[in-house]
Amino acid sequence: MNQSSLIQIGKYKVGIIRNPYERIIHEYKESWDWIGLADWIYKTELKPQCELYKDCDTVVCLENWESDFRMLDLTPNKNSMNKLYKHYSEDYRRWYSEEMKSLVHQIVLPDLHTYGYRF
Hints:
- With 119 residues, the protein is mostly helical.
- It has six helices and three strands, in the order ββαααβααα.
- A three-stranded mixed beta sheet has the order 1-2-3, covered by helices on one side.
- Strand 1 and strand 2 form a beta hairpin.
- The relative contact order is 0.23.
- The mean pLDDT is 91.
């Protein structure tokens, strides 16, 4: 399983970040290993995005990718970005009970601090 979304634009390596809670649900759905979210989290070695993208030149938020790239004066392949955004789901909250939030706490906490996301 590839946990990261990196793109290369010229000499720049750009990490595409997303809400860490949404990212976990996306990774679970994409894994096709639907053994139950809690079991999958225990089985999978999920890393925070800030760790995955520490060697990137910059990061861009998937939710605001067009304006983020415009501010950086970089032009990504719009088709690939649209394809990534199409997989972004705003219904991730329905997957999380208080128990599930506690389970993922250590995974999402570094991204919450680094990128300012909230549940």
